Amino acid sequence: MVARGHYIRTGETVDLPRFGRALRRSWWVIAVAVVLAAGGGIAYTAITPAQYASTVTFFVRTPTEQISGAYQGDQFAQKRVNSYVQLAESKRLADAILEETQLPLTSEQLTQKISAQGDLNTVLLTVTVTDSDPQRSLDIAQSLSRTYVSLVSELETPPGSTTPTVSLDVTSAPTLIPTPVRPRPLINIGLAVAVGLLLGILIAVVRDLLDNTIRTARELKTESGGAVLASIPFDKSAGTSPLIVESHALSARAEAFRQLRTNLEFVDVDHPAKVLVVTSSLPEEGKSSTAANLALVFAEAGKKVLLIEADLRRPRVADYLDLEGGVGLTNVLAGQAELDDVLQPWGVGGLSVLPSGSVPPNPSELLGSHSMQELLQSMRLIFDIIIIDTPPLLPVTDAAILAAHADGAIVVVRCSKTTRNQLAQSKLTLEAVDARIFGFVLNMVPPKHPEVYGYETYHYGADSSRSSAEKIDGVGQLPSQGSPDDSGHRASAQGALR
């Protein structure tokens, strides 16, 4: 189990799958960060003036006759090298060079162009002069090779003596490096890309940690504590063709609804559910299309199905099925119409639809009425399964009222939209009325999500021109129980209410 907001699983192991999902989800952020950083590196390289360097190497020498032994002389010279590094970068040497060369620079400007380094455990000292003008760099280095030797000799000669205790010898004459030493395009751009990549990854991880929505079936199972019955992939055609089981029978989305049907049949084998409420936390999470497609897959499996449009505030099922919804459930409950007059068969299978009817002023009271309970009880005698599309749980109480009289409910959760808090509140709302929660459906999962499987490639070469019932022959289909004709449905419904 993964703790909320962390990348550490139980047992202190890094949750690499979640880390990978965070990177995939924010790949464009990482790409933008890398591109911007690379652009910055290129711009910095382009506007930075080229710098040329000239080097000169000195040998620090100590006369052996003044220091006992050559070894001790080398040790003494190595210690003096550190002092000469500071002297090479001093204002005193810069003044001496300017006096000789008469360059239009200040001593402070010149000292910034000179750097010195003593080679480790040697008596060699390398001085580098860097300038935007390659010839001036070489001129300064040549002047430095003379003035530096003179300055050290002056400083290391004891009073009353003409011989310095330490002297400098030029071992490598001033040499100009022909190519610029700065800027370094590959290094600059490489470092910029690395910084941009790290920054992009950091932003991706922070976005993931701050995201409070449900994005995977594992997160849904962890947060809900219940079963995840199916992960329904997003299909861009669902907006215009919500009945995906009918219009694209072999699509991954259609197969996911068949998986949902199968899982529901195994929730309680000994006591199969007959009345099922389909709801969600908030609008636009796909509950109505889920209810309609679920009814279709039960019907194509040979079940006698009743789909009730009980979302009286924003009814959509009738529109999805291209049915007349002006007269229906509300008219039956109000005693304005008989059930057999408003119950509408759909398709060639065993699906019947009870539209919402006219919008009442008191939906909650109407759905919680004794007439609604009697209607459900009578329909149990006729249909194998009754699927009720209800309003969302959080804005109104309609769904909770119906769930209390149903065998159970499934809660549709929209991927990357439903938050953990909304999910918890929905669960508490159903538990408050002692409603049984069969499980949860993760809806609108991105097509490239790792939880979406390629069902469309697993159809045994079925002919796409066949009807939807023929297309799924043998794929998640229960044994057929026959499909009663439409007139039989209407007669049975009428007899049950009399």
TrEMBL record:
Family classification: Belongs to the etk/wzc family.
CDD domains the record matches: BY-kinase (cd05387)
GO cellular component, one term: plasma membrane
Catalytic activity: L-tyrosyl-[protein] + ATP = O-phospho-L-tyrosyl-[protein] + ADP + H(+)
Subcellular location field: Cell inner membrane
Disordered, as annotated region: 466-498
Residues that span the membrane, as ranges: 27-47, 186-206
Main location: membrane
SUPFAM superfamilies linked to this entry: P-loop containing nucleoside triphosphate hydrolases
UniProt-listed NCBIfam families: eps_fam
Keyword ATP-binding recorded: yes
Ranges for domain Polysaccharide chain length determinant N-terminal: 13-100
One Pfam family from the record: AAA_31
Domain AAA: residue ranges: 286-429
UniProt protein name: non-specific protein-tyrosine kinase
Superkingdom per UniProt: Bacteria
EC number(s) from the headed UniProt entry: 2.7.10.2
Lineage: Bacteria, Bacillati, Actinomycetota, Actinomycetes, Nakamurellales
Keywords: ATP-binding, Cell inner membrane, Cell membrane, Kinase, Membrane, Nucleotide-binding, Transferase, Transmembrane, Transmembrane helix, Tyrosine-protein kinase
Enzyme class: transferase
Gene Ontology MF annotations: ATP binding; identical protein binding; non-membrane spanning protein tyrosine kinase activity
Membrane topology listed for this record: Multi-pass membrane protein
Kinase found in the keyword field: yes
